[in-house]
Amino acid sequence: MPREAAWRHSLTLNLLLLILIYKEEIPMSHFSTLRTKITDAEILKASLRDLGISVKTEADIRGYNGQRVRSDIVAVLDGEYDLGWSRNADGSFDLIADLWGVAKKHNQTELINSINQKYAVNKTLSEVKQRGLQNANVKLVVQS
After folding, report:
1. 42-90, pLDDT tens digit by residue?
2. Which pLDDT band holds residue 130 (cuts at 50, 70, 90)?
3. 87-88-91-97 Cα dihedral, nearest 10 degrees
4. Which of 6, 14, 16, 136 would suit a FRET pair with 38, their CA atoms being 20 to 30 Å apart?
5. Domain-by-domain residue ranges, the chain?
6. Distance between CA atoms of residues 76 and 59, nearest Å
7. CA–CA dist 46, 38 (Å, integer)
8. Which residues of 95-108 are buried (b: 16+ CB within 10 A; e: fewer)?
């Protein structure tokens, strides 16, 4: 084998070895991160509790095969998987979850939609109260 070809072959093998080592050292995560418009932690926690969901703060989200991710707010679900929210620099929260795992026991679309709806209702009612309209009649129309 000519010298240049041997050098290329050696470089290729070394790169493949580095890639294999890298893949072995960092396990593949099942967690997904979704942007949300949620900005109020207290209303999010109240909304989860209104739906009968246990809430933890500064806790781990449970995922596939014992994987865990730290989160600001955690909705502890029945089963082996949770939903979590982590605050971004702009004040909004990202939803973090092993969506595949959540879907094993829950209809994830219905669950996330019900949380978003409850949050929207509670946020609206909170805004109305802050503006001094505690005695006003409020009619919320929820459309899907």
Report:
1. 999 999 999 999 999 999 999 999 999 999 999 999 999 999 999 999 9
2. confident
3. -40
4. 136
5. 32-130
6. 10
7. 13
8. bbbbbebbeeebeb
